[in-house]
Amino acid sequence: MISIKLSLCCLVIICALGCNVVSGDDDDEVTLTKFGTNIGPTIKFFYCYSCGYKRVFQEYVTILEQKYPELQIYGQNYDPSGYNMYFAKFLGTAKIIVILLIITGINIAQWIGQPQPFWWEWSLNNKFYSCLMIFFVCNAIEGQLISSGAFEIHFNDVPVWSKLETGRVPQPPELFQIIDNHIQMLYPKHESLEMNFNNN
């Protein structure tokens, strides 16, 4: 009995941590070299966290910081448009509340003067399995709600690549070419980012 309670408590903690993913506050920042008061150009990645694109972003960080040491790299979750994010947040909160009610054995039907439903009685009698089922089913629904498939790239706040439009993530050579072209427009006197941006 004690082990079941401990397992349920761990499940509640996992639910609480899982809300950070749904909230879209996952914000990674990798700030690279800065010289004096001048700061190099920035590149921002907006990716679908639930699609597993955070790993792709981290791989690009490793590649870009080697080739462009003065480039500032930022990354964060791409929030889906419409009401999907609000529904996902609501579902995440409701999931935790229901699991807590099941763990504490509270009979909601008594509050409103109604007989206890069969499914709620089953949940109270099978707390561990019902909590697991609620947790994984709600997580699957939340993942579908916030899944955008996005991998958007902005260079100095200018959109330069959109997976939502092209249907794919850029290959490293493609991204290098995009960055080089923008650098040539911004800093025509410099051949690459390996040179300082300090004013002479």
Automatic annotation (TrEMBL):
Query: Which protein is depicted?
Result: SelT-like protein
Entry keyword set: Membrane, Redox-active center, Signal, Transmembrane, Transmembrane helix
Q: Which GO terms describe its molecular function?
A: thioredoxin-disulfide reductase (NADPH) activity
Annotated transmembrane regions: 86-109
Q: Where is the signal peptide?
A: 1-24
Q: Is Ribosomal protein among the key words of this record? A: no
Q: Does the keyword Ribosomal protein apply?
A: no
Q: Sorted alphabetically, which Pfam families does this protein's record hold?
A: Rdx
Question: What are its GO biological-process terms?
Answer: cell redox homeostasis
GO cellular component assignments: endoplasmic reticulum membrane
